[in-house]
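Hi everyone,

Forwarding the result from last night's run.
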Amino acid sequence: MKSLFLAVIVLGIASLSVLSLPSILSSNQRFPYSSAALSYNPAPANRFHSPLSSMGLIAVADALPAASSLSSTSAQGVSGDLQGGVPSIQARATRFIEDSSYMPQSETSLAVDPNNPSHVVGAFNDGRWFFCPFLPVSNCPSGYTISLSGFTTSSDGGKTIMKSNDIPGISYPSNGSCQIYPNGECFLLSWGDPSVAVSPDGNFFYASLAIDPTSGANGVMITKSDPSLWQPGDPCVTGINTPWHNECWKKPVFVFGNLSAGAVSFEDKDRIAVDTDPSSPFFGSVYISWDHFYPNGTSASFLARCTNDLDSCTMLSGGPKPPISGSDIFADWTTVVVGKDGAVYVTWCNIGTFTTFGPVSCKVASSPPGGNDFGKPHDVFSFMGQGTTMPQARFLIGFASEQFRTASIEAMAVDKSSTSNNLYWTIAVCTSGKYYVLPGGAADNPGDCGLSSIIFTSSSDGGVHWSKAQIVSLEAVNVQPFITVDPANGNLYVLYYTTQFDPFNHRIDVVASKSSNEGLTFSQVRITSVSNEPDSDPAYYDYFTPSGFGGSFIVPQYGDYFEGVALHGRLYVLYTANYASELGTLQTDPWLSVLRA
Protein backbone atom coordinates (compact mmCIF):
# COMPACT_ATOMS: atom_id res chain seq x y z
CA MET A 1 0.00 0.00 0.00
CA LYS A 2 2.93 2.36 0.52
CA SER A 3 3.64 2.34 -3.20
CA LEU A 4 -0.01 3.01 -3.96
CA PHE A 5 -0.04 6.09 -1.77
CA LEU A 6 3.12 7.32 -3.49
CA ALA A 7 1.24 7.00 -6.75
CA VAL A 8 -1.70 8.96 -5.38
CA ILE A 9 0.59 11.71 -4.11
CA VAL A 10 2.51 12.15 -7.34
CA LEU A 11 -0.60 11.87 -9.49
CA GLY A 12 -2.23 14.52 -7.35
CA ILE A 13 0.75 16.84 -7.61
CA ALA A 14 1.02 16.29 -11.34
CA SER A 15 -2.46 17.63 -11.94
CA LEU A 16 -2.17 20.72 -9.77
CA SER A 17 -1.32 24.19 -10.85
CA VAL A 18 1.45 25.43 -8.60
CA LEU A 19 -1.07 27.84 -7.05
CA SER A 20 -2.71 25.05 -5.08
CA LEU A 21 0.13 22.79 -4.01
CA PRO A 22 -0.54 21.60 -0.47
CA SER A 23 1.97 20.11 1.88
CA ILE A 24 1.27 16.49 1.05
CA LEU A 25 4.76 15.05 0.80
CA SER A 26 6.06 16.02 4.22
CA SER A 27 5.76 18.83 6.71
CA ASN A 28 9.05 20.37 5.58
CA GLN A 29 8.54 20.01 1.83
CA ARG A 30 5.81 22.42 0.85
CA PHE A 31 6.85 22.95 -2.76
CA PRO A 32 7.61 20.28 -5.35
CA TYR A 33 10.94 21.66 -6.48
CA SER A 34 14.06 20.53 -4.69
CA SER A 35 16.38 23.28 -3.46
CA ALA A 36 19.26 21.18 -4.77
CA ALA A 37 17.98 20.90 -8.33
CA LEU A 38 16.32 23.11 -10.91
CA SER A 39 13.47 21.19 -12.44
CA TYR A 40 10.04 21.54 -14.01
CA ASN A 41 9.05 18.24 -12.35
CA PRO A 42 7.53 17.66 -8.90
CA ALA A 43 9.42 15.51 -6.40
CA PRO A 44 10.63 12.81 -6.57
CA ALA A 45 11.01 13.37 -10.34
CA ASN A 46 12.79 16.68 -9.82
CA ARG A 47 16.15 15.01 -10.28
CA PHE A 48 15.35 15.36 -13.99
CA HIS A 49 15.40 18.88 -15.42
CA SER A 50 13.25 18.58 -18.57
CA PRO A 51 9.52 17.97 -18.06
CA LEU A 52 8.46 14.33 -17.80
CA SER A 53 5.16 13.12 -19.19
CA SER A 54 2.22 12.38 -16.90
CA MET A 55 2.99 8.67 -17.03
CA GLY A 56 6.69 9.35 -16.52
CA LEU A 57 5.98 11.21 -13.29
CA ILE A 58 3.93 8.31 -12.02
CA ALA A 59 6.59 5.77 -12.94
CA VAL A 60 9.35 7.66 -11.14
CA ALA A 61 7.17 7.54 -8.02
CA ASP A 62 7.29 3.71 -8.17
CA ALA A 63 3.53 3.24 -8.38
CA LEU A 64 2.42 -0.33 -7.61
CA PRO A 65 -1.18 -1.58 -7.22
CA ALA A 66 -1.23 -5.34 -6.24
CA ALA A 67 -20.39 3.57 -26.28
CA SER A 68 -22.71 6.01 -25.90
CA SER A 69 -22.85 9.03 -28.27
CA LEU A 70 -23.73 12.70 -28.10
CA SER A 71 -26.58 13.55 -30.44
CA SER A 72 -25.43 14.79 -33.83
CA THR A 73 -25.46 18.56 -33.86
CA SER A 74 -24.19 21.49 -35.87
CA ALA A 75 -21.17 23.10 -34.27
CA GLN A 76 -21.68 26.80 -33.69
CA GLY A 77 -19.66 29.35 -35.61
CA VAL A 78 -16.93 31.26 -33.82
CA SER A 79 -17.39 35.01 -33.66
CA GLY A 80 -14.24 36.96 -34.24
CA ASP A 81 -12.48 34.11 -36.03
CA LEU A 82 -8.91 34.53 -37.19
CA GLN A 83 -9.44 35.23 -40.89
CA GLY A 84 -12.41 34.46 -43.11
CA GLY A 85 -15.65 32.76 -42.20
CA VAL A 86 -16.18 29.69 -40.08
CA PRO A 87 -17.52 26.78 -42.14
CA SER A 88 -20.79 25.13 -41.18
CA ILE A 89 -20.01 21.59 -40.04
CA GLN A 90 -21.83 18.55 -38.74
CA ALA A 91 -19.94 17.06 -35.79
CA ARG A 92 -20.52 13.55 -34.47
CA ALA A 93 -19.02 12.83 -31.04
CA THR A 94 -18.71 9.26 -29.77
CA ARG A 95 -17.48 8.09 -26.38
CA PHE A 96 -14.59 6.01 -27.71
CA ILE A 97 -14.20 3.41 -24.99
CA GLU A 98 -16.34 0.70 -23.40
CA ASP A 99 -15.15 1.10 -19.80
CA SER A 100 -18.05 1.53 -17.35
CA SER A 101 -15.98 2.42 -14.26
CA TYR A 102 -15.39 5.99 -13.13
CA MET A 103 -11.62 5.78 -13.71
CA PRO A 104 -10.40 8.39 -16.19
CA GLN A 105 -8.54 7.99 -19.47
CA SER A 106 -6.30 10.59 -21.13
CA GLU A 107 -3.49 11.24 -23.63
CA THR A 108 -5.24 10.15 -26.78
CA SER A 109 -3.54 9.03 -30.00
CA LEU A 110 -5.37 8.26 -33.26
CA ALA A 111 -4.80 6.52 -36.59
CA VAL A 112 -7.08 5.99 -39.62
CA ASP A 113 -6.30 3.65 -42.52
CA PRO A 114 -6.14 5.84 -45.67
CA ASN A 115 -6.91 2.80 -47.84
CA ASN A 116 -9.87 1.83 -45.67
CA PRO A 117 -11.09 4.87 -43.68
CA SER A 118 -13.72 2.74 -41.97
CA HIS A 119 -10.87 1.32 -39.85
CA VAL A 120 -10.09 3.67 -36.96
CA VAL A 121 -7.84 2.91 -33.96
CA GLY A 122 -7.67 5.11 -30.87
CA ALA A 123 -5.24 4.83 -27.96
CA PHE A 124 -5.21 6.28 -24.44
CA ASN A 125 -3.86 5.94 -20.91
CA ASP A 126 -6.21 3.62 -19.05
CA GLY A 127 -6.56 4.70 -15.41
CA ARG A 128 -8.30 1.51 -14.26
CA TRP A 129 -4.98 -0.17 -13.51
CA PHE A 130 -4.25 2.09 -10.55
CA PHE A 131 -7.28 1.64 -8.33
CA CYS A 132 -9.71 -0.98 -9.62
CA PRO A 133 -7.79 -3.85 -7.95
CA PHE A 134 -8.48 -2.18 -4.58
CA LEU A 135 -12.07 -1.11 -5.13
CA PRO A 136 -15.34 -3.06 -4.97
CA VAL A 137 -16.35 -4.72 -8.22
CA SER A 138 -19.35 -2.37 -8.34
CA ASN A 139 -16.93 0.54 -8.80
CA CYS A 140 -15.21 -1.13 -11.76
CA PRO A 141 -17.84 -3.21 -13.57
CA SER A 142 -15.59 -3.54 -16.63
CA GLY A 143 -12.78 -5.01 -14.55
CA TYR A 144 -9.18 -4.09 -15.20
CA THR A 145 -6.09 -5.32 -17.02
CA ILE A 146 -2.41 -5.35 -16.16
CA SER A 147 -1.80 -2.60 -18.68
CA LEU A 148 -2.03 1.17 -18.89
CA SER A 149 -2.13 1.36 -22.69
CA GLY A 150 -5.71 1.11 -23.90
CA PHE A 151 -7.08 0.86 -27.42
CA THR A 152 -10.45 1.17 -29.13
CA THR A 153 -11.36 0.21 -32.68
CA SER A 154 -14.18 1.18 -35.02
CA SER A 155 -14.96 -0.59 -38.30
CA ASP A 156 -17.44 2.03 -39.53
CA GLY A 157 -15.34 5.19 -39.52
CA GLY A 158 -15.90 6.03 -35.86
CA LYS A 159 -19.69 5.84 -35.74
CA THR A 160 -19.67 2.90 -33.33
CA ILE A 161 -17.15 0.94 -31.28
CA MET A 162 -16.07 -2.50 -32.42
CA LYS A 163 -13.62 -3.44 -29.63
CA SER A 164 -11.98 -1.79 -26.64
CA ASN A 165 -9.29 -3.28 -24.41
CA ASP A 166 -5.58 -2.90 -23.58
CA ILE A 167 -2.43 -4.00 -25.38
CA PRO A 168 -0.15 -6.65 -23.83
CA GLY A 169 3.13 -6.06 -22.01
CA ILE A 170 6.48 -7.87 -22.21
CA SER A 171 7.93 -10.78 -20.27
CA TYR A 172 11.65 -10.64 -19.48
CA PRO A 173 14.19 -12.73 -17.52
CA SER A 174 14.57 -12.09 -13.82
CA ASN A 175 16.91 -9.27 -12.79
CA GLY A 176 17.01 -10.26 -9.14
CA SER A 177 14.38 -7.97 -7.69
CA CYS A 178 11.35 -8.20 -9.95
CA GLN A 179 8.08 -9.99 -9.30
CA ILE A 180 7.98 -13.47 -10.87
CA TYR A 181 4.83 -14.20 -12.86
CA PRO A 182 3.24 -17.63 -13.47
CA ASN A 183 5.21 -18.01 -16.71
CA GLY A 184 8.44 -17.95 -14.65
CA GLU A 185 9.57 -14.53 -15.87
CA CYS A 186 9.31 -10.89 -14.87
CA PHE A 187 6.97 -8.49 -16.59
CA LEU A 188 7.07 -5.00 -18.08
CA LEU A 189 3.67 -3.33 -18.09
CA SER A 190 2.65 -1.34 -21.12
CA TRP A 191 2.73 1.99 -19.32
CA GLY A 192 0.88 4.55 -21.39
CA ASP A 193 2.16 7.48 -23.44
CA PRO A 194 0.55 5.71 -26.42
CA SER A 195 1.30 6.45 -30.06
CA VAL A 196 -0.48 4.69 -32.92
CA ALA A 197 0.10 4.73 -36.69
CA VAL A 198 -1.19 2.70 -39.63
CA SER A 199 1.03 0.41 -41.69
CA PRO A 200 0.76 0.29 -45.52
CA ASP A 201 -0.53 -3.27 -45.12
CA GLY A 202 -3.61 -2.05 -43.22
CA ASN A 203 -2.48 -3.15 -39.77
CA PHE A 204 -1.67 -0.72 -36.96
CA PHE A 205 1.48 -0.04 -34.93
CA TYR A 206 1.16 0.82 -31.23
CA ALA A 207 4.13 2.16 -29.23
CA SER A 208 4.13 2.62 -25.47
CA LEU A 209 6.34 3.04 -22.46
CA ALA A 210 7.16 -0.26 -20.75
CA ILE A 211 7.87 -0.34 -17.01
CA ASP A 212 8.26 -2.85 -14.20
CA PRO A 213 7.31 -0.81 -11.10
CA THR A 214 8.66 -3.50 -8.77
CA SER A 215 12.24 -3.25 -10.00
CA GLY A 216 12.55 0.02 -11.92
CA ALA A 217 13.30 -1.70 -15.22
CA ASN A 218 11.88 0.43 -18.02
CA GLY A 219 12.01 1.20 -21.72
CA VAL A 220 10.07 1.74 -24.92
CA MET A 221 8.08 -1.03 -26.61
CA ILE A 222 6.13 -1.45 -29.84
CA THR A 223 3.58 -3.96 -31.11
CA LYS A 224 1.53 -4.40 -34.28
CA SER A 225 -2.02 -5.57 -34.85
CA ASP A 226 -2.94 -8.51 -37.08
CA PRO A 227 -6.11 -8.96 -39.17
CA SER A 228 -7.96 -10.58 -36.25
CA LEU A 229 -8.26 -7.09 -34.78
CA TRP A 230 -11.08 -6.61 -37.28
CA GLN A 231 -12.77 -10.00 -36.84
CA PRO A 232 -16.11 -9.50 -35.05
CA GLY A 233 -15.89 -12.75 -33.10
CA ASP A 234 -12.45 -12.09 -31.58
CA PRO A 235 -12.64 -10.04 -28.36
CA CYS A 236 -8.92 -9.10 -28.42
CA VAL A 237 -8.58 -9.24 -24.63
CA THR A 238 -5.33 -8.92 -22.67
CA GLY A 239 -6.00 -11.20 -19.70
CA ILE A 240 -5.11 -10.71 -16.07
CA ASN A 241 -3.37 -14.07 -15.88
CA THR A 242 -1.61 -13.72 -19.25
CA PRO A 243 -0.86 -9.99 -19.53
CA TRP A 244 1.88 -10.64 -22.10
CA HIS A 245 -0.63 -11.99 -24.65
CA ASN A 246 -3.43 -10.58 -26.79
CA GLU A 247 -4.53 -12.60 -29.83
CA CYS A 248 -4.98 -9.45 -31.93
CA TRP A 249 -1.53 -7.94 -31.30
CA LYS A 250 1.92 -9.32 -32.01
CA LYS A 251 4.23 -10.08 -29.13
CA PRO A 252 5.58 -6.62 -28.21
CA VAL A 253 9.17 -5.76 -29.08
CA PHE A 254 11.40 -4.10 -26.49
CA VAL A 255 13.01 -1.30 -28.52
CA PHE A 256 15.41 0.18 -25.95
CA GLY A 257 15.76 0.66 -22.21
CA ASN A 258 17.33 -0.62 -19.01
CA LEU A 259 16.24 -4.01 -17.65
CA SER A 260 18.50 -3.94 -14.61
CA ALA A 261 17.07 -3.69 -11.11
CA GLY A 262 16.95 -0.14 -9.80
CA ALA A 263 17.44 1.39 -13.23
CA VAL A 264 18.21 5.09 -12.83
CA SER A 265 17.96 6.01 -16.51
CA PHE A 266 14.49 6.56 -17.88
CA GLU A 267 12.73 6.48 -21.28
CA ASP A 268 9.76 8.80 -21.84
CA LYS A 269 7.34 10.30 -24.40
CA ASP A 270 7.51 7.88 -27.33
CA ARG A 271 6.16 8.96 -30.77
CA ILE A 272 6.01 6.94 -33.99
CA ALA A 273 5.80 7.54 -37.76
CA VAL A 274 5.74 5.19 -40.78
CA ASP A 275 7.49 5.38 -44.16
CA THR A 276 4.63 5.20 -46.70
CA ASP A 277 6.67 5.89 -49.86
CA PRO A 278 6.52 2.76 -52.11
CA SER A 279 9.78 3.78 -53.79
CA SER A 280 11.67 4.07 -50.49
CA PRO A 281 14.00 1.18 -49.56
CA PHE A 282 12.48 1.47 -46.08
CA PHE A 283 8.85 1.36 -47.20
CA GLY A 284 6.66 0.21 -44.31
CA SER A 285 9.34 0.73 -41.65
CA VAL A 286 8.23 2.38 -38.44
CA TYR A 287 10.31 4.99 -36.60
CA ILE A 288 10.10 5.47 -32.83
CA SER A 289 11.39 8.65 -31.18
CA TRP A 290 11.52 9.39 -27.46
CA ASP A 291 13.33 11.25 -24.67
CA HIS A 292 16.10 9.44 -22.83
CA PHE A 293 16.78 10.72 -19.30
CA TYR A 294 20.27 10.06 -17.98
CA PRO A 295 20.95 9.44 -14.25
CA ASN A 296 22.55 12.90 -13.92
CA GLY A 297 19.25 14.61 -14.83
CA THR A 298 20.11 15.53 -18.41
CA SER A 299 18.22 14.20 -21.43
CA ALA A 300 18.70 13.49 -25.14
CA SER A 301 16.69 12.66 -28.25
CA PHE A 302 16.70 8.95 -29.13
CA LEU A 303 15.41 7.34 -32.32
CA ALA A 304 15.03 3.77 -33.62
CA ARG A 305 13.72 2.20 -36.82
CA CYS A 306 11.92 -1.14 -36.85
CA THR A 307 11.05 -3.31 -39.82
CA ASN A 308 7.42 -3.55 -40.84
CA ASP A 309 7.02 -7.00 -39.30
CA LEU A 310 8.93 -5.92 -36.15
CA ASP A 311 11.52 -8.65 -36.68
CA SER A 312 14.30 -6.20 -35.85
CA CYS A 313 14.87 -2.66 -34.60
CA THR A 314 17.95 -0.49 -35.24
CA MET A 315 19.06 2.38 -33.04
CA LEU A 316 19.65 5.51 -35.15
CA SER A 317 20.19 8.02 -32.35
CA GLY A 318 21.30 7.30 -28.80
CA GLY A 319 22.50 4.05 -27.26
CA PRO A 320 25.53 3.14 -29.36
CA LYS A 321 24.98 6.17 -31.66
CA PRO A 322 25.47 9.87 -30.94
CA PRO A 323 22.10 11.48 -30.15
CA ILE A 324 20.51 13.68 -32.80
CA SER A 325 20.10 16.40 -30.18
CA GLY A 326 23.89 16.78 -30.00
CA SER A 327 25.05 19.31 -27.44
CA ASP A 328 21.49 20.03 -26.23
CA ILE A 329 21.56 18.41 -22.79
CA PHE A 330 17.92 19.04 -21.87
CA ALA A 331 16.19 17.76 -25.02
CA ASP A 332 12.47 17.23 -24.55
CA TRP A 333 9.44 15.83 -26.43
CA THR A 334 11.37 14.27 -29.29
CA THR A 335 9.00 13.84 -32.24
CA VAL A 336 9.57 12.05 -35.55
CA VAL A 337 7.65 12.49 -38.83
CA VAL A 338 8.27 10.98 -42.27
CA GLY A 339 7.79 12.80 -45.57
CA LYS A 340 6.04 11.51 -48.67
CA ASP A 341 9.51 10.79 -50.11
CA GLY A 342 10.58 8.77 -47.06
CA ALA A 343 12.75 11.55 -45.61
CA VAL A 344 12.91 11.50 -41.80
CA TYR A 345 12.50 14.62 -39.65
CA VAL A 346 12.99 14.85 -35.89
CA THR A 347 12.14 17.86 -33.72
CA TRP A 348 12.81 18.57 -30.04
CA CYS A 349 13.11 21.52 -27.65
CA ASN A 350 16.09 22.13 -25.38
CA ILE A 351 14.64 23.25 -22.04
CA GLY A 352 16.70 25.91 -20.29
CA THR A 353 20.05 25.45 -18.57
CA PHE A 354 21.37 24.06 -15.30
CA THR A 355 20.61 27.38 -13.59
CA THR A 356 17.67 28.81 -15.59
CA PHE A 357 14.29 27.64 -16.90
CA GLY A 358 14.84 29.48 -20.18
CA PRO A 359 15.69 29.86 -22.93
CA VAL A 360 13.62 27.18 -24.64
CA SER A 361 15.19 26.48 -28.02
CA CYS A 362 13.39 24.21 -30.51
CA LYS A 363 15.16 22.55 -33.44
CA VAL A 364 14.73 20.05 -36.26
CA ALA A 365 17.12 17.65 -37.97
CA SER A 366 16.53 15.67 -41.16
CA SER A 367 17.85 12.55 -42.85
CA PRO A 368 17.28 10.75 -46.16
CA PRO A 369 15.07 7.63 -45.96
CA GLY A 370 16.32 5.22 -43.32
CA GLY A 371 17.37 7.86 -40.79
CA ASN A 372 21.05 6.95 -41.04
CA ASP A 373 22.41 10.36 -42.01
CA PHE A 374 21.03 13.24 -39.98
CA GLY A 375 22.56 16.57 -40.82
CA LYS A 376 23.11 19.66 -38.73
CA PRO A 377 20.08 20.67 -36.64
CA HIS A 378 18.31 23.87 -37.66
CA ASP A 379 16.58 26.35 -35.37
CA VAL A 380 12.78 26.43 -35.57
CA PHE A 381 11.59 28.66 -32.74
CA SER A 382 12.81 29.88 -29.35
CA PHE A 383 11.27 31.74 -26.45
CA MET A 384 11.71 32.80 -22.83
CA GLY A 385 14.77 34.99 -22.66
CA GLN A 386 16.89 37.62 -24.35
CA GLY A 387 17.81 36.86 -27.95
CA THR A 388 14.98 34.38 -28.51
CA THR A 389 12.16 34.60 -31.08
CA MET A 390 9.62 35.57 -28.39
CA PRO A 391 11.62 36.84 -25.38
CA GLN A 392 8.59 37.57 -23.16
CA ALA A 393 6.79 34.28 -23.80
CA ARG A 394 7.22 31.62 -21.11
CA PHE A 395 7.00 27.90 -20.64
CA LEU A 396 3.68 26.50 -19.45
CA ILE A 397 3.61 24.75 -16.07
CA GLY A 398 0.16 25.70 -14.75
CA PHE A 399 -2.65 28.25 -15.03
CA ALA A 400 -3.99 30.90 -12.69
CA SER A 401 -7.58 30.04 -13.59
CA GLU A 402 -7.47 26.24 -13.52
CA GLN A 403 -5.99 23.24 -11.72
CA PHE A 404 -4.53 22.03 -14.97
CA ARG A 405 -1.16 20.45 -15.52
CA THR A 406 0.25 20.95 -19.01
CA ALA A 407 3.49 21.98 -20.71
CA SER A 408 4.88 23.71 -23.78
CA ILE A 409 4.99 20.65 -26.01
CA GLU A 410 5.72 20.98 -29.72
CA ALA A 411 4.18 19.04 -32.59
CA MET A 412 5.20 18.72 -36.24
CA ALA A 413 3.63 17.38 -39.44
CA VAL A 414 4.64 17.03 -43.07
CA ASP A 415 2.42 17.81 -46.04
CA LYS A 416 2.07 14.64 -48.14
CA SER A 417 -0.33 16.15 -50.68
CA SER A 418 0.61 16.70 -54.32
CA THR A 419 0.98 20.45 -53.79
CA SER A 420 3.94 20.58 -51.39
CA ASN A 421 6.30 18.78 -49.07
CA ASN A 422 6.14 21.47 -46.40
CA LEU A 423 6.90 20.96 -42.74
CA TYR A 424 4.50 22.51 -40.23
CA TRP A 425 5.35 23.07 -36.58
CA THR A 426 3.45 24.32 -33.51
CA ILE A 427 3.80 24.87 -29.75
CA ALA A 428 1.85 26.48 -26.89
CA VAL A 429 3.50 29.27 -24.88
CA CYS A 430 2.40 31.53 -22.03
CA THR A 431 1.86 35.04 -23.38
CA SER A 432 0.09 36.85 -20.52
CA GLY A 433 0.36 36.83 -16.75
CA LYS A 434 2.91 35.34 -14.38
CA TYR A 435 1.18 34.40 -11.16
CA TYR A 436 2.49 32.82 -7.97
CA VAL A 437 6.12 32.33 -8.88
CA LEU A 438 7.66 29.65 -6.68
CA PRO A 439 10.20 31.06 -4.20
CA GLY A 440 13.83 30.11 -4.66
CA GLY A 441 15.46 28.64 -7.73
CA ALA A 442 15.99 30.51 -10.96
CA ALA A 443 14.87 34.13 -11.39
CA ASP A 444 13.08 33.21 -14.64
CA ASN A 445 10.75 30.66 -13.03
CA PRO A 446 7.71 30.82 -15.33
CA GLY A 447 5.06 30.69 -12.60
CA ASP A 448 1.36 30.14 -13.28
CA CYS A 449 0.13 31.44 -16.63
CA GLY A 450 -2.83 33.76 -17.26
CA LEU A 451 -3.37 33.33 -21.00
CA SER A 452 -1.51 31.22 -23.54
CA SER A 453 -1.16 31.17 -27.32
CA ILE A 454 -0.63 28.62 -30.06
CA ILE A 455 2.43 29.39 -32.19
CA PHE A 456 2.74 28.19 -35.81
CA THR A 457 5.57 28.21 -38.33
CA SER A 458 6.37 26.35 -41.56
CA SER A 459 9.30 25.35 -43.76
CA SER A 460 9.38 24.68 -47.50
CA ASP A 461 13.00 23.50 -47.66
CA GLY A 462 13.11 20.50 -45.33
CA GLY A 463 13.48 22.46 -42.10
CA VAL A 464 16.47 24.61 -43.03
CA HIS A 465 14.53 27.89 -42.97
CA TRP A 466 11.24 28.65 -41.18
CA SER A 467 8.57 31.27 -41.74
CA LYS A 468 7.97 34.09 -39.28
CA ALA A 469 6.17 32.59 -36.29
CA GLN A 470 2.52 33.59 -35.96
CA ILE A 471 -0.18 33.17 -33.32
CA VAL A 472 -3.11 31.13 -34.67
CA SER A 473 -5.31 31.13 -31.54
CA LEU A 474 -7.63 33.68 -29.96
CA GLU A 475 -7.09 35.19 -26.51
CA ALA A 476 -7.74 32.39 -24.00
CA VAL A 477 -6.09 29.45 -22.29
CA ASN A 478 -4.88 27.45 -25.32
CA VAL A 479 -2.92 24.23 -24.84
CA GLN A 480 -1.68 20.94 -26.33
CA PRO A 481 -1.58 21.78 -30.06
CA PHE A 482 -1.33 19.06 -32.69
CA ILE A 483 -1.01 19.35 -36.48
CA THR A 484 -2.56 17.12 -39.12
CA VAL A 485 -2.57 17.60 -42.91
CA ASP A 486 -5.05 16.11 -45.40
CA PRO A 487 -3.00 14.32 -48.10
CA ALA A 488 -5.91 14.72 -50.54
CA ASN A 489 -5.88 18.52 -50.65
CA GLY A 490 -3.11 19.86 -48.39
CA ASN A 491 -5.51 21.44 -45.89
CA LEU A 492 -3.76 21.71 -42.54
CA TYR A 493 -5.37 21.82 -39.11
CA VAL A 494 -3.76 23.00 -35.88
CA LEU A 495 -5.86 21.34 -33.16
CA TYR A 496 -5.86 22.48 -29.54
CA TYR A 497 -7.86 22.80 -26.33
CA THR A 498 -9.16 26.31 -25.64
CA THR A 499 -11.24 28.20 -23.07
CA GLN A 500 -12.16 30.92 -25.60
CA PHE A 501 -15.90 30.22 -25.32
CA ASP A 502 -15.89 30.72 -21.53
CA PRO A 503 -15.35 34.29 -20.24
CA PHE A 504 -13.96 32.79 -17.02
CA ASN A 505 -11.27 30.85 -18.93
CA HIS A 506 -12.35 27.60 -17.33
CA ARG A 507 -14.60 25.42 -19.49
CA ILE A 508 -12.77 23.74 -22.33
CA ASP A 509 -13.47 23.13 -26.01
CA VAL A 510 -11.50 21.69 -28.92
CA VAL A 511 -10.96 23.87 -31.98
CA ALA A 512 -8.93 23.68 -35.18
CA SER A 513 -7.18 26.60 -36.82
CA LYS A 514 -7.48 25.64 -40.48
CA SER A 515 -5.41 26.78 -43.44
CA SER A 516 -6.07 25.96 -47.10
CA ASN A 517 -3.06 27.93 -48.38
CA GLU A 518 -0.08 26.26 -46.69
CA GLY A 519 -0.27 28.28 -43.50
CA LEU A 520 -0.48 31.77 -44.97
CA THR A 521 -3.89 32.48 -43.40
CA PHE A 522 -6.14 30.64 -40.97
CA SER A 523 -9.83 30.40 -40.11
CA GLN A 524 -11.25 28.51 -37.16
CA VAL A 525 -13.41 25.40 -36.85
CA ARG A 526 -15.04 24.44 -33.54
CA ILE A 527 -14.76 20.68 -33.06
CA THR A 528 -16.80 20.36 -29.86
CA SER A 529 -20.35 21.66 -29.90
CA VAL A 530 -20.66 21.72 -26.08
CA SER A 531 -18.05 23.13 -23.68
CA ASN A 532 -16.58 20.63 -21.26
CA GLU A 533 -16.53 21.15 -17.47
CA PRO A 534 -13.07 19.85 -16.46
CA ASP A 535 -13.80 19.59 -12.73
CA SER A 536 -16.97 17.50 -13.02
CA ASP A 537 -15.07 14.22 -12.66
CA PRO A 538 -14.95 13.31 -8.93
CA ALA A 539 -11.61 11.64 -9.48
CA TYR A 540 -10.16 15.15 -9.70
CA TYR A 541 -11.01 15.90 -6.08
CA ASP A 542 -8.22 14.99 -3.68
CA TYR A 543 -9.84 13.14 -0.77
CA PHE A 544 -6.59 12.60 1.11
CA THR A 545 -5.52 16.20 1.76
CA PRO A 546 -6.69 18.22 4.78
CA SER A 547 -10.22 19.58 4.30
CA GLY A 548 -10.15 18.18 0.80
CA PHE A 549 -7.94 21.09 -0.27
CA GLY A 550 -6.23 21.20 -3.57
CA GLY A 551 -5.57 19.08 -6.50
CA SER A 552 -6.41 15.92 -8.26
CA PHE A 553 -6.83 12.44 -6.81
CA ILE A 554 -5.39 10.81 -9.88
CA VAL A 555 -4.02 11.49 -13.35
CA PRO A 556 -4.27 15.08 -14.76
CA GLN A 557 -7.44 15.93 -16.64
CA TYR A 558 -6.05 15.90 -20.13
CA GLY A 559 -2.54 14.50 -19.87
CA ASP A 560 0.05 16.00 -22.21
CA TYR A 561 -1.48 15.72 -25.68
CA PHE A 562 -4.31 14.67 -27.97
CA GLU A 563 -4.34 13.89 -31.69
CA GLY A 564 -6.37 14.04 -34.89
CA VAL A 565 -6.23 12.82 -38.50
CA ALA A 566 -7.25 14.79 -41.61
CA LEU A 567 -8.12 12.42 -44.44
CA HIS A 568 -10.10 12.66 -47.68
CA GLY A 569 -11.97 15.79 -46.61
CA ARG A 570 -12.83 14.51 -43.14
CA LEU A 571 -11.30 15.44 -39.82
CA TYR A 572 -11.11 12.79 -37.07
CA VAL A 573 -10.22 14.12 -33.60
CA LEU A 574 -9.74 12.01 -30.45
CA TYR A 575 -9.70 14.14 -27.30
CA THR A 576 -10.51 14.00 -23.58
CA ALA A 577 -13.84 15.21 -22.15
CA ASN A 578 -16.37 14.62 -19.36
CA TYR A 579 -19.52 14.27 -21.46
CA ALA A 580 -20.79 10.89 -20.24
CA SER A 581 -22.02 9.66 -16.86
CA GLU A 582 -20.83 6.37 -15.39
CA LEU A 583 -22.01 5.22 -11.98
CA GLY A 584 -23.89 8.44 -11.46
CA THR A 585 -21.27 11.03 -12.28
CA LEU A 586 -19.48 12.56 -15.25
CA GLN A 587 -16.11 10.98 -15.92
CA THR A 588 -13.13 11.74 -18.13
CA ASP A 589 -13.12 9.63 -21.29
CA PRO A 590 -11.70 9.64 -24.82
CA TRP A 591 -14.19 11.15 -27.28
CA LEU A 592 -14.03 10.89 -31.06
CA SER A 593 -15.46 13.64 -33.28
CA VAL A 594 -15.67 13.09 -37.03
CA LEU A 595 -16.65 15.96 -39.31
CA ARG A 596 -16.32 17.32 -42.80
CA ALA A 597 -13.92 20.23 -42.77
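Residues 1-36, 65-91 have pLDDT under 50 and may be disordered.

Cheers,
N.
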